[in-house]
What does this fold into?
Amino acid sequence: MSFWAESRGWKLLWTASREFCFMRASPVDTVRAMGAHATIPTENSAAMQRARGRIGLQFRKDAHGNSQLVDLHQSGCAKAMVARRRDPVAEAVLINTAGGLTGGDQLDIGIRAEPGVTLDVASQTAERAYRSLGTAATVHNRLWLGGQTDLAWIPQETILFDHSALRRHLEVEMSGTARLLVAESFVLGRLAMGETVHRAEVQDHWRIRRDGRLVFADSLRLGGDIQHLIGRKAVLDGAQAFASVLLVAADAEDWKDRVLQEAEVQDNLRASASAWDGMLSLRLVASRPDVLRTTLKTVLQRLRGRAMPRVWTM
It folds into this structure.
């Protein structure tokens, strides 16, 4: 015999031996405690514990030409690590201490780079989108780039688990003299563990404005029967990992042939690119995540002209 009480995501369990113990409550624990006739709670039937996180960063170029952090706000599960060094290139590493994203989680990240700043923004590790019971996890990323700013938004890959639901938005306001590099990649399940993503709902929206004018809008949506969808030649043709790269810079169009040459030498990977109006858009698809990651690192390092952040090599 046992009874349970749940408060803010924790369960107090009293067993037949009259011992109390605390443990993280889960739908499965709830079913076991309530008996065989219980049902698993859904988003609408029970208030589940959800992660909330917010980061605000501001960087400024000092009198010696170094890019320095001048303002920091962080709350909830979202944290930022910024190296204490005086260097022309600043580096920020974003961390989700919740360990991943699930339905109902919310992250909000805003980064402002003042004129002349050079900044790399990466994530500590791969993000994970776990199974959702209904609602999607939402992530809003907002970037502001002043004149002559050089900003690289290069988080590591997002791993999608079966029945995950993720809605992500990237909004950028940049000066016409700024340089922006953005890369986002997805992996469908942990292939080394034999996992297959059968169903998921993923949306990833990019909106880039240069001098107040919308110059790039891209929306990705994967939903429903994922294996059927990615098997289509016009989608992924069976690939299990894919990435999008965007360079907005005065010399962006000059890079098209060079980055395609880097990508096309790899087996089990295909690449395509378009260049126009000071922008380069690159797509990569691969049958193996490690091939995609290796190629992406090479391409990004070329486009940035400097070594990748250390978190990409650990």
